[in-house]
Amino acid sequence: MKKLMVLLLVVSLWNCEEQKTPKYLETGTYRAVLDVQDGEELPFIFEVESKDKLKIFNAEETIEVDEIEYRNDSIFIKAPVFEGYIAATFEDKNLKGSFIKESLDRVVPFSAEYENTKRFETTQEPTQDVTGTWETVFSKDIEGDEYIAKGIFKQDTSTGSAQGGKVTGTFRTTTGDYRFLEGVMDGNTMKLSTFDGAHAFLFTAKVSDSTMEGTFYSGNHWKEPFVAKRNADFELPSANDLTFLKEGYDSLDFSFPDEDGNMVSLSDERFNNKVVIVQIMGTWCPNCLDESKYYTKYYQANAERGLEIVALAFEYAKTEDKAFASIKRLRDKLDIAYPILLAQYGTSDKAKAQEKLPMLNHVLSYPTSIFIDKTGKVRKIHTGFNGPATGEKYEEFKTEFKSFVGGLLVE
Questions:
Q1: What is the second-level CATH architecture of the domain 132-230?
Q2: For the segment 74-122, what is each residue's pLDDT rounded down to a tens digit?
Q3: pTM to 2 decimals?
Q4: CATH-assigned architecture of domain 255-409
Q5: Which of 401, 384, 205 minimizes the C-alpha distance to 307?
């Protein structure tokens, strides 16, 4: 049914019998809203610089968008790299339509109001300050779904400040972070959101001095409860201990095609006597995008020292051609020089991914990085990625990464 809705929407927007003079985005700021479950709204702000360029804002993150297409009275907005796009029609200077991810048959109602700069409307002064570290459990006591996280937040409590009550931060999990979250404290209610063209997240919670209880919404297809308590000393398990080789293995083995149809394996000459980082990822994954940006710069600076990186893409695109098209789009956008192989398409299921790499105990997260020394021995496996939204943790990751890989290169 959802797939049919997508097709009907696209057809109705693209195939207008009556040719009209195209409308264009007005320069200025828009408040966008995605309709999620329970009557909740997921807002984000974007600023139009010209009819062909806009910026999406999430806390410290700025996403530059230059893939904007106009057809008659309709507009199509596609964020960098990811498959999802906004399809909308003009209502005067405002927009109304949907956020669409075709491969997953997902359609989320979308609207945008011109010259509205408030991400969240508030009705009360903040009565709580969420600044600090929160030990968090999502889907508590729900068998098979429960997992832990670390909430890290900063709240502006300036008296009389226009930013009073503004909250930024993220939730870190064992598999990665929940991106750059931005929102407010409205009385004792925390509201946070983010939108990057792949994920649309909304968190709402009632907060006391030492606890919070709320709901996490992902688009309009998923929601789950969470609880949290203040704990300045809370730490997640080490990302280096979660994924490992099964007993009897000390190396990795695979053979997957590149975009030219060539089968690539670790036994290929280009990897001989090299330090190799194998990146398990997907082009649909924002944490993988953050990691790929970092790896691309590091590879450019260190390839001549005997470093190779090879990415294994696990894609939910329904056809091989679409999967490779997504890989090419990522490669072109980031100028990635290392190979990206198609390990799987049609699903991003982690159990299926583990079947492709049976020497691993499991594939717990996209991304996961496997570090291999010059003799072909696996020396470390790092689960997840602490991206720029995690602040100090991201800086710690970069320091550890440079030290560890630098040590392998001089062995």
A1: Beta Barrel (2.40)
A2: 999 999 999 999 999 999 999 999 999 999 999 999 999 999 999 999 9
A3: 0.91
A4: 3-Layer(aba) Sandwich (3.40)
A5: 401
